[in-house]
Amino acid sequence: MKPYYDHGGIQIYHGDCLDVLPTLGPVDLVLTDPPYGAQTHAGAQTGRDGGVPLVDFDSMTADELRCCFSLTRPRRWLVSFMEWRHLAQMEDAPPEGLRFVRFGIWVKPNGAPQFTGDRPATGWEAVGIFHAEGGRMRWNGGGHHAVWTEPKVTSDHPTGKPLKLVQKLVVLFSDATETILDPFMGSGTTLRAAKDLGRKAIGIEIEERYCEIAANRLRQAVLL
Questions:
Q1: Are strands 29-32 and 200-205 parallel, antiparallel or unpaired?
Q2: Phi-psi region of 97 (alpha: psi -120 to 50; beta: other; left: phi over 0)
Q3: By percentage, how much of the chain surpasses pLDDT 90?
């Protein structure tokens, strides 16, 4: 399959990750942000009753996500922002070739309040941390907790993650010579972080509009 974008060690593939992943070579780190479950997607909206939905793409079940993760086959880590319900299921039944390591947390100090006012707001997202079976675990964080505090940012994607947070994860879970894969690339934050930090990276995205947004982000100069 011909890449949608290919420059400076960064590649983008426009397509379904189920079709693209079997065609790729080995990678070291999978760092991604897949769709969440139907319940979470349905609850993501602005304002009170009758708010505007924030998510315009299909949800995934835990089994569908487990299948995708099983095809990635990283040599080292898989780190993913995740629906917490999906992560809880994968603790007991990890993707093929991976073992569950830790339930991490992204704390969002500026997260949305509970607009109904009748219960506490969430203010965090789960981060699933897995490692290849049989390999020795090694990361660059020492004894650091699997808790990262970073404000939400305005993004050109409904569920875009902060570049600073993704850069931290790249540094912690990969080395400069390694290759990063994002099978649910969105607008390309993982690839942009990889470029900024001198890593090679591969992104897969089913929506062409986000492939173009990501390619444009990658054409910008590194500012670090």
A1: unpaired
A2: left
A3: 76
Q: What SS3 class is residue 218?
A: helix
Residue type, 114: Q
Q: How far apart, in whole angstroms, are the C-alpha atoms of residue 25 and residue 79?
A: 19
**What are the residue ranges spanned by the domains of the chain?**
5-219
pLDDT tens for 90-119 read 999 999 999 999 999 999 998 878 777 888
β-sheet with 200-205: strand ranges across: 5-7, 10-14, 200-205, 179-182, 29-32, 77-82, 124-132, 98-107, 147-149
Sign of torsion over alpha carbons 130, 77, 173, 29: negative
CATH of domain 5-219: 3.40.50.150
Residue 148 amino acid letter: W
Q: What is the pTM of this model?
A: 0.90
Structure tokens at 48: 């009170």
**203 CB-near residues (< 8 Å, 6+ apart):** 10, 11, 12, 13, 181, 182, 183, 185, 188, 190, 191, 214
